[in-house]
Amino acid sequence: MSDSSGLPPDLFDRLTLSVVKSLEKRPGVSDICLKEIPAAERHLVLSWEQRNSCILPDDLKRFYLTSNGFHLQWCVKFEDQPFHLGLMEINPIEKVAKLAGRRNTSNLPSPADVDYNTDDDDETEYLSHGRKQPHFDLRSRVFELDPCNGYGKTCLVYNNTTQGVPATDSDIWFLDRSLHWHFIADTFSQYFRLMIMNLGLPLWHFTLTDIGLPNHAQQWFYMYAPLQLNVEVHQESKKSSTNKNLEEVSNKIDVNKVFKGKSDKKSKSLASVTSKKKTSSSKLASVRATLSSKVR
Questions:
Q1: Residue 84's beta-bridge partner residues?
Q2: Tens digits of per-residue pLDDT, 101-139?
Q3: Per-residue model confidence (pLDDT) at position 195
């Protein structure tokens, strides 16, 4: 399959329809709306790449040549009224807007001001999952893929960019409302699977951050996607805690001392028995000597 071709239509349909069928089986779910979106015209994709001096990753390019965006929304019945709960959304190619990576030529505040005191030599302090975090200045080119219903933005990020040179290496990050970056996925395909697995539940992106879900969002996950509540992280944490406890116990208990104590007790017992035997023997010898003198 060439880079300019879209995804196989049957594969994309199976993927999206499987989500709809899965939602239909869940209690209380209603009003599932999956928008049918036609493929983006090829010239729109090429024009975006030329305008932004960035090469779209192959999987994202194939996605747009299959469907120019994605929108699936679903509700739950709340007091017999539909309540909008889940939302899965990917911007169309013409709305993949540039958020950062341009020079600020005005005196007005801009996100690039966040990086004004960040030196290149001090970037080791700005790591997430072993990766350098994106910047709002010319060092990165950042584009919005998903508006995240207003609580943040999912971004396609090109790091370590050079002015005048097309950027090629990208990954997916989540930008929260406090302008903190959180690494999400290496590829768009991974991100799309994560979005589907989390059913587009409110604040689902925070399950992949060190912030975690707020309590009210956790309740929805317990009802509709309990397996996505970082089960592996909890198990790893539990395993780490167990190993730590075992290590602490093993550090407190010296096996050699335990067995040494037993051998000491045995030696003390043997010494005590031997001493008693010697005492009894001396007493018996003394009695025999007294009887012998009286007989004489």
A1: 75
A2: 555 555 555 555 556 555 454 544 456 667 888 999 889
A3: 94
> Structure tokens of 262?
């037993």
> Given the DSSP bridges, would you call strands 98-100 and 170-176 parallel, antiparallel or unpaired?
unpaired
Task: Report the alpha-carbon distance of residue 173 to residue 177 in Å, rounded.
Answer: 13
Place of tokens 């690039």: 112
Q: Where do the DSSP E strands lie in 94-137?
A: 98-100, 127-128, 131-132
pTM, 2 dp: 0.71
Instruction: Provide the percentage of residues in the chain whose pLDDT is more than 90.
Output: 49
Residue whose structure tokens are 């001090």: 122
Residues with Cβ within 8 Å of 98's Cβ and at least 6 positions away in sequence, in order, are: 52, 141, 142, 143
Rg for the chain, CA atoms, rounded: 35
Helix (H) or strand (E) holding 54: none
Q: Which amino acid is at 14?
A: R
- Sole residue written with tokens 């970056």: 181
Asked if residue 57 lies in contact with residue 188, where contact means CB atoms within 8 angstroms, the answer is yes
Please say whether the beta carbons of 118 and 111 come within 8 A. no
* Cα 134-137-142 angle, rounded to 5 deg: 50
- 223-236 b/e with 16+ CB inside 10 Å = b? ebbeebeeeeeeee
Instruction: For residue 118, give Cα distances in angstroms to 28, 47, 124, 224.
Output: 49, 33, 11, 42
